[in-house]
Specification:
about 140 residues; about 25% strand; 6-stranded mixed β-sheet; alpha+beta; 2 helices; single chain; about 25% helix
Length: about 140
């Protein structure tokens, strides 16, 4: 069974997608942008640090909406439009959301552009606790 989640109070979609799709305990979150869910038409935060914080907060909103949190995230894909300039600041901010012993697998890619003129976008995969366990 596949569930398609749209989170009440979540970030406004910038394209036709679900906030998250779930199957067999795996929860795949759509890439989040640095938009404010309470003011979707407001200007984006200035700089990669502020945008990374907003993206991480948006991921937390979506995760909370499916009764999970960042500790359940097993993989992230991160996209930066100004990779060389912003990579260090992005890393400093990103790592503050995870404990050292629970950092997800991650890929970070430099891209030419992102929706809404963002500097950063992050998508992720989370796993429900106990999912996939078999009884013996």
């Amino acid at each position: 069974m596949v569930e398609f989640h749209m989170i009440s109070g979540g970030p406004s979609p910038v394209a036709p997608f679900s906030h998250a799709v779930e199957t067999n305990g795996w929860v795949i979150l759509t890439g989040q942008m640095p938009t404010d869910p309470e003011a979707p038409d407001a200007p984006l935060p200035e700089g990669v640090v502020a945008q990374t914080r907003r993206v991480m907060e948006n991921l937390e909103i979506v995760l909370k909406g499916v009764r999970l949190d960042l500790s359940h995230v097993v993989q992230c894909r991160c996209y930066l439009t100004e990779f060389e300039r912003d990579y260090a600041g992005f890393n400093d901010t990103y790592q503050s959301y995870f404990t050292v012993d629970r950092r997800p697998a991650r890929t970070t890619v430099g891209v030419t552009a992102l929706a809404v003129g963002a500097l950063v976008e992050i998508d992720c995969v989370a796993r429900r606790p106990g999912a996939g366990r078999t009884k013996s």
